[in-house]
Design brief:
D-Maltodextrin-Binding Protein, domain 2; five-stranded mixed sheet; 46% helix; 21% strand; binds arginine
């Protein structure tokens, strides 16, 4: 009996330690932002000691399966970290607010609900501004634009060189994405909607889907890193061009803050710099 008690305690303790480790890892990306936020906070504190201000945390929801926007790497300390140009933008917004940054890696499909229910303050996740989404959330100005791409296996590059050639094909897309909507419009296409882009690429590589529709920069990043897949000449059309940051409906103060940070980052060329740096990082 006593032995079991000890064993149970040990298991519980181990679980606790593991959970704590996981926590730390998840916050990896937030950490850098924390530091940035901290500096501003301390500065602000000296000028006006507002305790509420200094405790502020900005929680970002993103689906970190999306290089170069947001993705996981092993950093120099060998730890898991979420990086990407959306993360850099998030850090800047937190810095301007004098807030700590917390990043939540969630399923893309769940992000708008998380925002509506207040579990995250912002969605920064390569989010395209669709009229449908505009009914559920408020959106910032467009901070970046990119094209769509079709990815397939090397051998099928010419077979899927046009959008018409995708008719009746098996197409992999991310759940809840505009690419899913685009694929639904292709006559007789058979959709495989998955939560993670890496799973879609796997399906492609194992012949379970014929092609995938992805954001151009994401397609480029995967094609560079995964053997045997290529971008075809097909050019998917998309009316909801560009990426925006999602804010809870009616939160005008935060929306204004986000837009003013974006204004600064667009004007001084930071966004382009973040994109270049994140793309390089994604190639490693
Ligand atoms: N731009 C597309 C959309 O808004 C896909 C975004 C997917 N983002 C991600 N982090 N996986 O639907």
């Amino acid at each position: 009996m006593k032995k079991w008690g000890i064993l149970l305690t040990a298991v519980l303790m181990l679980t606790f330690v593991l959970a704590a480790c996981g926590q730390e890892k998840n916050n990896g990306a937030g950490q850098a932002g924390n530091k940035a936020g901290q500096t501003t906070q301390n500065g602000a504190q000296a000028a006006e000691p507002d305790t509420n201000e200094t405790d502020k945390t900005l929680t970002i929801g993103m689906s970190a399966d999306f290089p170069p926007y947001e993705f996981h790497i092993k950093n120099e300390q060998g730890e898991d970290e979420i990086v990407g140009f959306d993360v850099e933008i998030a850090k800047e917004i937190a810095k301007d607010m004098g807030a700590k940054l917390e990043i939540k890696d969630l399923k893309f499909d769940s992000l708008l609900n998380e925002l509506a229910s207040g579990r995250v303050d912002l969605v920064i996740s390569g989010l395209s501004p669709t009229p449908e989404r505009a009914k559920q959330i408020d959106m910032s100005k467009i901070y970046y634009k990119a094209e769509q791409a079709v990815v397939t296996r090397e051998a099928d590059k010419d077979k899927f060189a046009t959008m018409e050639s995708l008719e009746g094909a098996k197409i992999g897309v991310q759940q809840g994405s505009i690419q899913e909507e685009m694929a639904k419009k292709i006559p007789n296409a058979k959709l495989t909607s998955l939560a993670k882009i890496s799973d879609i690429v796997m399906q492609l590589n194992t012949n379970r889907v014929d092609a995938a529709i992805l954001e151009g920069p994401v397609a480029k990043s995967f094609v560079k890193n995964v053997k045997g897949i290529v971008i075809t000449d097909a050019t998917p059309e998309n009316e909801d061009e560009g990426y925006v940051i999602g804010v809870k409906k009616g939160n005008k103060e935060l929306l204004d803050q986000v837009n003013s940070t974006l204004d600064r980052l667009i004007a001084d060329g930071s966004i382009d710099k973040f994109v270049t740096e994140a793309s390089e990082l994604a190639e490693k």
